[in-house]
Each structure stands twice: as C-alpha cells, then as structure tokens.
Amino acid sequence: MPDKTLAQWLETWRGALEVGPAGDVTVKDARRLRGEVMDTLASLAALGTDRDKARARALIWEAARQTGVRTASIQTLYEAMGRGAVKGFTTPAINLRGLVYDSARAVIAAVRKQGVGAFIFELARSEMGYTFQRPGEYASVVLAAAVREGFEGPVFIQGDHYQVNARKHAQGGEVRAAEIQAIKDLIVEAIQAGYRNIDIDASTVVDLSRPTVKEQQRENFTISAELAAHVRAHEPKGCTVSIGGEIGEVGGKNSTPEELRAYMDGFLEELGRRSGGGTLPGPSKVSIQTGTTHGGVPLPDGTVAKVKIDFGVLKQISDIARSEYGMAGAVQHGASTLPLEAFDQFPKAGCAEVHLATDFQNIVMDHPVFPRELRSEMYAWLDRECAPERTAGMTPEQFYYKTRKKAWGPFKAQVWGLSEATRAELRAALEAKFAVLFTKLGVNGSEKAVREHVKPLDERRAVPA
C-alpha cells in the first residue's frame, strides 16, 4: 500500500520513469519499471488520493504504451471468426472482483507461458458497485499487471452487463430516462478509461407475455440499438468498439433461434435508423441463456449444484449468428463453477466467448493462506449489512456463498495490504486454474491470430499537472 505521495515516489524512480514539465512520460528503464514502480503505481491508482489516482493512472497508461501494452477492441478478431477465417477456440472473459492486481498478474503469467492472445478482462456494472472499482481504476490496475509481468500486445478490457434495471425501466418517464442516461454516462466513462469492448444488456426488459417473439424482444433491441449508437458516437477515431448484445437473461428460460433473429433483425433496423443515412456496425456477438446462473446455485453445505448446459442450443445459435449475421457466435455466461470437463465443449459448440467470475473469488477466499481473521471480519460485515438477503431455510454456508462478493469493496484496502508471501501463493493457485481453462478453451497459441487481426491504436496521455 502507498506510504508516500506520487511526487515523492517519482523522485525515487528517477532513471526508471520520468515526467517532463508538460506532463510527458518517458520510460528510462523497463526492467526497473517491472518491479516496485509498477506495484506502487497500481496501489496508488486504486488507493491514493484523488490527485494521485489520476496521475498514477496516466503514468500506468504511458508506461504500458511505451513497453508494448495497448488496450484494444476485439472487433476485428471477431469479424474474422464470423467469416470463418479464425476458429477453434472460445475467448475467456474474466471478471476480477477482488485481489485484482495479483489476479490479473496470474492471468498474464499463464497467457505468456501458453501463447494466449484471445483473453478479456471485464467488470459488470453491478460489480463496480460492490467492489468499489470504477472503469479508470480497473483498466489501470489491469494494465499495470500486464506491464509487471512483461506482457507485450493487445489487452482487451470490457464493460460486462451494462444492464438496464427492469424495475426502473418499468416506472417509465423520468425514472426510465435517468436509467438509460446512467448507462450512457457509464459507456463514455469506460471508453475514456480505455475500455474498447462494451456488452449491452437490456435482456432484463424482455416481455414474454407479448404475443409474438418480435414484440417480446422489442424493448430489448430498441434500447440496445440506442445504447449501441451512443457507443459509436463516442468511440475513438480509428477504433470500432466491440459491442455485445443479449437476448435472454441469465438464469431464465433457454434461448431460441427465433429470439436471436427477432432481436438481431430489430437491432440492426433500429441502428440503421440512428445512423443518419450511413451504416453503423452492429454487435460482434450475442449472449444467450443455456441453463446456467451467475455464480451457480449453492447447496445447503456450501457446494454448488451441478448444472446441465444445453450445448445444442449454444451450437445452433452460434452457427446462425455467424452464417446469417457475421458475428463471432454466441456468448455463455455463468460458467466459472462448471466442472472442468464442460469447458472442452465450448469450442466444439462454436461458442465465441465464455464469462468467468465466481470460481476465482472462491479460489482466493477459500485458500488456506487467505487470512482467517480477515475472512471472519468479512463474514461479520455480511451478517450486519446483508441480513435482508438471508431467506428462510438458508444455511450459513449458502448465505455467505451468495453474498460474500459484496465484501470486496468494504475490505478493499485490507486485501491490497496482504503480505507478498500470501499474495504469491494466491497468484500461483489462480495461475494454475487459468492455465487449465485456457487449454480447455483452446486459446493456447491464439496470440498469432490476435496479432494478425488486431491493430490497437497508439493513444498518448499526459500526466495531469
């Protein structure tokens, strides 16, 4: 954790990283950079004063750029997948809620050893709230981890589930307008932070009581197109931000080809109306429901119930997404707690992307080296603050499993302050899991395809005075 101001640290780092009078950054010694400098900058970007946070984030951005790390859109890779020019793997999209710097380092360590290029770091709108991470912090910490581990190449950072609140939408009027504007504001904030991939989720307003599939999806595709046009209006010049859509809320009924076609036809028609006579690129992928739930279903003893994914639905809709709409395929959510043997099936089904979160949290919180005292403090906080979520018949194990993700934010500083020995063991456990997942998802060696199809922008940033 930072114990000095950034100005004091910069004096210490002379000869490694320097800032000129105009805020221009120069990396003098990349080897020194990949040590205490990056560890400290990441910590300042997350825990420093507001002024130091802004300056540390700009320094990280420039340090990353000058050492070959650039944020990028996965759009052109997914277009190649839509054409059939690239195939055979499913991109893992990894949500990091806590211990983010060390978890991201574990991802990058596995990526470098296995030649992985297709991988995404992401954070959902809901996760931002309970983990106390805005886009500027998340992007900076991820980039710092990439530099720290000696990575060079595109880094894909994604806004996951930029989701419409169904209750606020149903109220209509000013409440609905404010909800849509909040998502638009978040989109701009994320793009300015370096996110080049945004997943729009208005599946929460699908109305299955309506008489036709198109009418059931109408609010979904209308809002999605409005938000997609907003992305296009604010994306950097020369970069097409990858946009994801969603036709079925995770945890609901399984999706159908009819729903995909109704959603996509309506989406593209609405997007065309907003293009001002031109053509705006539509989604590069679409999320569907195949039988999973976010985080899995905890049993009374705290273990997770086995889930049966309908890989037939996943394959059918992925095939249609590519052949009829030129997309990369379908996206699977809520998969991290599945048994390992299930992950071999995603590339075989032509699944474009799989979203993974809860199991990485489990690895950290349930690891023997994670301080027992800290976990007890977290659980005591959950007992106080999340008591309304404890339903009749719920065991303590079920309650903590479902709610403990909400403790990451309030205990963020304590987690950042874990000893290096503890963090090193947690990194090793996470890296081992990422290594297995990357192998099963077929992304080992995907670095070649990414370098061939993805050309990140070279965007300079100055450090605020």
Can you give the mean pLDDT?
Answer: 94
- Helix count, DSSP H or I runs of 4 or more residues: 19
Strand order in the sheet with the most strands: 4-5-6-7-8-9-10-11
Number of strands: 11
Counting copies of identical and different chains, the oligomeric state is single chain
Largest sheet: 8 strands, parallel, barrel
Strand content: 5-15%
Secondary structure category: alpha/beta
Which spans have pLDDT < 50 for at least 5 consecutive residues? none
What is the helix/strand order?
Answer: HEEHHEHEHEHHEHHEHEHEHEHEHHHHHH
Distance between the termini: 23 Å
Portion of residues within helices: 40-55%
Computed over alpha carbons, the radius of gyration is: 22 Å
Shape: globular
Secondary structure elements and pairings:
Layout: H1 6-12, E1 17-19, E2 25-27, H2 30-47, H3 50-66, E3 69-71, H4 75-83, E4 91-95, H5 100-114, E5 120-124, H6 125-131, H7 135-148, E6 153-163, H8 166-171, H9 173-193, E7 197-201, H10 213-234, E8 242-246, H11 257-273, E9 285-288, H12 311-325, E10 330-332, H13 345-348, E11 353-356, H14 358-365, H15 372-385, H16 396-403, H17 412-416, H18 420-440, H19 447-453
Parallel strand pairs: 3-6, 4-5, 4-11, 5-6, 6-7, 7-8, 8-9, 9-10, 10-11
Antiparallel strand pairs: 1-2
